[in-house]
Specification:
alpha/beta, 499 residues, 15 helices, globular, binds nicotinamide-adenine-dinucleotide, 7-stranded mixed β-sheet, 24 strands, 37% helix, 6-stranded mixed β-sheet
Amino acid sequence: MCSVPPVGKKEKMLTATKAKVSAGRLLIDGQWVEGAKKFDTVNPATGEVLTEISEASHADVDNAVAAARKAFEDRAGAWRKMSASERGRLIWKLADLIEKNIDEFAELETIDNGKPIFESRYVDMPMVIDVLRYFAGWATKIHGETVNTFETAFTYTLREPVGVVGLIIPWNFPLLLASWKLGPALACGNTIVMKPAEQTPLTALRFGELAIEAGFPAGVLNILTGGPQVGKAIVTHAGIDKIAFTGSTAVGKEIMRSAADSLKRITLELGGKSPNIVFADSDIDNAVKGAITGIFYGKGEVCNAGSRLFVESKAHDEFMEKLVGRAKKLQPGDPLDPKTRMGAIVSQEQMETVLGYIEAGKKDGAKLITGGSRVAVGDGHGFFLEPTIFGGVTNEMTIAQEEIFGPVLSVLTFDDMDQVVAEANKNPYGLAAAVWTRDIKKAHTISRQLRAGTVWINTYGLMDAALPFGGYKQSGFGREMGMHAIEHYTELKTIWLNL
Ligand code: NAD
């Protein structure tokens, strides 16, 4: 794909960063280690290099895995042997430290990812804190069972930590998606080798500093920065017992193939192409707001984005007029401005991918109703795209089938419930779905028929630390958050005692 030149003329610069941005090193066995190679992390709102980050080598991966193994079981005070209440206390303390530094964390996330400060400060970071506290509470509530079998036997089960777990994180919700894995992994007594995405390592590194400050023993949390090669080295490492991955379906499949050699446990949170279904009997104004949030929140770089909007034909004209009116008002702005609701696309590469899909939509005959172009914010070097809506989309088109991971909405129409359920399910993904109607019977019936891990009724995108999140079909398997996450970070052992 051709590269996209900066747009716009020289205008006022974006808000200056207050958070201190240090060069990134690797966290191995409680020490910050300089990597032999470096790469840059870029502010997508300005195109400027924020700082230099260390790239982990194979030797660094070996050292991190060895440190995690030692911290898991070999050392005095090993993590798995520490009292559950002490583990919970440390996780809670870390949550407190993040809360104390919440403005700094929010700003680091915004300059690294391009998301509006409103989202980082009031959604991502509060949820990181909440998720850590939720799992801090779980540390003391992980039980086995006693089971009645024979008169002559005492039989029971234990839930034990899996061991050393590799966490591989994407760039769209850098610290939030890390917390979904860190919380249960730590609460269950596992030790960690974590790799944040190469585009957005800053908050993970600051998290590592606070973990040391909170008093986590050396080696419990190791952080390795770098690209896919570092991820591969973690996935194929014989010393890692489980991989928890969030990212693209293509990489998820690769991980599943390579994990087969060692039969590592894996959980995969992958892509989505979630249907958002609006019936004519819904509260149309609310459904319009939900459709806007569903696709444009997080610049559309959201795994559960409501990127396929199905509108009942009877309501189409009224709905589209309101939808397009709102989308036009939602113009990209300086991510550090508290009023901004649409930030910068994470990287030039991602922006080009999204622009490529916009071209594919036009080529397939969809009607570009609004947006479709890069826009200048500040000096024009940032990666900003207009909120984009395509009408006249059919379910076979590329823009209706493939995950775009950007602010591009495909609008389809339907006339009856069976038709819309069939079309909504006709997609390789099954992460989430939503339905808007005042008819409660219809809402529950359709919720059961949709093949998706989460279904929202008359809302979009709500989440809570206590509720499981994860996919059907090619959106992956395993669940994060909620009590079911505990199952994925423990092994179940059966013990027989002959009485
Ligand atoms: P990606 O798969 O390219 O990268 C994700 C992470 O995996 C990064 O840390 C990357 O360095 C690493 N990686 C890349 N190739 C690897 C390999 N071969 N082996 C091991 N690690 C490797 O995905 P991305 O572009 O960073 O993120 C976007 C994707 O993530 C989208 O498809 C999105 O839907 C998905 N996602 C899913 C969820 C969910 O909960 N289901 C949440 C957020 C994002």
